[in-house]
Amino acid sequence: MPYPSQIDRDKIVQQATEMITTDGVDNLSLHKLATTLGVKAPSLYRYVGNKSELIRAVNLATLEQLFVIMDEAAAVSSGKPAEKLLAILLAYRAFAHANPRRYLLAYHENDEYRSDEDLLVKMVLPVQAIMAELVGEERALTALRGALALVHGFVLLEINNQLRRGGDLDEAFQDSVQAFLRG
C-alpha cells in the first residue's frame, strides 16, 4: 500500500475523474477512491474535505480542460472572428461528446458542485472578446450567452438522444452556428 504522501490533490482528482468517467458520479465514494489509490480513506481528507469538494475539483478540472481545448481551437483557426467562434463551438461540442458524464456533471444544477464563478468568468472572457469583435463590446455578453446556450442546448439534446428525426447532426450544428452568426 502506498504511503499517503505519495498521493496529492492532483492525483486524487485525476483518479476521481477516471472513476466518474467509467462508473458515474453516483458510484464514486471516498472509500472506493482511496482503495483504488491504495491508501486508507482518512488519507484523502488531507486533500479534499468531502465528496462535494472532490466533485467541485473534478468539475473545475473538466472546465479547465474544456477551455484549453477551446483556446487551442481559436488559436489554430484563421484570424477572422466568425471562424474562430465556429472553431471554438465545434471544439466545445466535440469535448462534450468525448466526455459526456464529466460534461453533464460540470453543468449540474446542484450549487454545491459548482466551480468558482469568478474563475469561470475569467476563463470565458477570451470568447467574449471574440464576440465583441463580431457584434461590438456593448452586445458581446448577450451574444456570448446566446452562443453558449446554442452549443450547450444542442449538446444536451444530442447526449440525451433527443434529436432523432434524421439528418446529419454535424451539419445541423454547423448550420445552426452559421445562422446564429448571421444574426
How do the strands and helices of this protein lay out in sequence?
Blueprint: H1 9-23, H2 30-37, H3 41-44, H4 51-76, H5 81-98, H6 100-106, H7 117-135, H8 137-159, H9 169-182
Helix pairs in contact: 1-4, 4-5, 4-6, 4-7, 5-6, 5-7, 5-8, 5-9, 7-8, 8-9
Walk me through this protein's architecture.
This protein is an all-alpha fold. It is 73% helix and 0% strand. It has nine helices and no strands. α5 (81-98) runs parallel beside α8 and α8 (137-159) packs antiparallel against α9 (169-182). The protein is elongated and about 55 Å long. It starts with 8 loop residues before the first helix and ends with a helix. The model has no long low-confidence stretch (mean pLDDT 92).
Top keywords for this entry?
183 residues
Low-confidence stretches: none
What portion of residues belong to β-strands?
under 5%
Largest sheet: none
> What structural class do the secondary elements suggest?
mainly alpha
**Percent range for helical residues?**
over 70%
User: What is the CA-based Rg, rounded?
Assistant: 19 Å
What is the global morphology? Answer: elongated
Report the average pLDDT across residues: 92
> Would you report the number of β strands?
0
**Oligomerization category of the chains in this entry:** single chain
Instruction: Please write the string of helix (H) and strand (E) elements.
Output: HHHHHHHHH
Counted by DSSP, the helix tally is 9
**Separation, N- and C-terminal Cα atoms:** 59 Å
